[in-house]
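Appendix B. One record, verbatim.
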Amino acid sequence: MAAKLTKRAVDGAQPGEKDIFLFDEDLIGFGLKITPTGRKTYLVQYRIRGVKKRMMIGVHGSPWTPEQARQEAVKLLGLVAAGQDPAEQKQQAKAVPTVAEAVEKFYAEYVLSQTKPRTIHEYRRVVDRIILPRLGSIRLDAIQRSHIVRLHHELRETPYQANKVLAILSKMFNWMELVGLRDDRTNPCLHVQKYKEQKRECLLNDDELARLGQAIAEVEAGGATSPYVIAALRLLILTGARLNEILKLRWDEVDFQHGALRLGDSKTGAKSIDMNPPALELLAGIPRQEGNPFVICGKIEGHSMVNINKAWRVIKAKAGLDALRIHDLRHAFASVGATMGMSLPVIGKLLGHSQAATTARYAHLSSDPLKKATATIGAHIAAALEGGKKADVVPLPAVRRG
């Protein structure tokens, strides 16, 4: 049945016992379907590659008026005239995941199997708190550089966080290209400039090391803090190890015979940390708990210490070093070696850096063997912690805080 599909004609069309189809007499292929319940739906009917197809446009009423539906029909029939199938394109578009769906796939198939537990937790936190609320509902193929730039700009007050989000997104979109969820070389993070991050680095001088040592001793003498927390802090200062490397250290990874820690895993993978005599003496004095494989035992039986933040806040306040972070103890270890003339490669190996550029902040160094380097650093720090005389050592530079 053909008629001019005006508002009057559509409003006046009555339902029958079965579906009724009205087609516009001016625009061939533009029609209206009326169900027995009175529902009226605009559509286009066309033939492509010898196959007759119908594609629904929308239900009559808000927002579809006859003229709006006619304009959409003109566009769709134009695609047909150009040899394209709008129904097929619509079906393909439905198959494209949203960013939220793609992120979950990335998390399940890449993050959980290819990254470390701490990284898994950080990815989840950033995704849930920042990425999904802003980008989650957008179709993956619709994400453009402008979306990424806008999100990065919104986080400008926290440049470190902004850059972390950018890095995670870049990694995610690279993976999506790899598995075919996006076309190659379409990563929208490309050319988005990272914000400049201010280095928050604190290099302790001898007086500050002495104050820190005194504060640790006072807290230890008070008896309210676990001896394992105290041991963990002293090991961090004496070895330059990362916090998690000490908290997760197992007794079967301690090689007293060769004076080293043989870590099965770390931020940079399996590694060895050469121990200096003060650190080895400290390790030998840590009480072992039966059935607990960890050196730094936690409150839960058989488990390691989870964190030492509460005690650390008390200790650094006592030392008058409120801005000092636990990670700065690693920098302090390296800075002692740097000011005593040890080489960049040696310090890098002691710290377990995987790239030489990471150690580049410690300049003006000279060569020395690893064992001698760690022994010298350990002896120096141990003396400073005890407030011993400093005539035989090179003073550290003044403290730098960011």
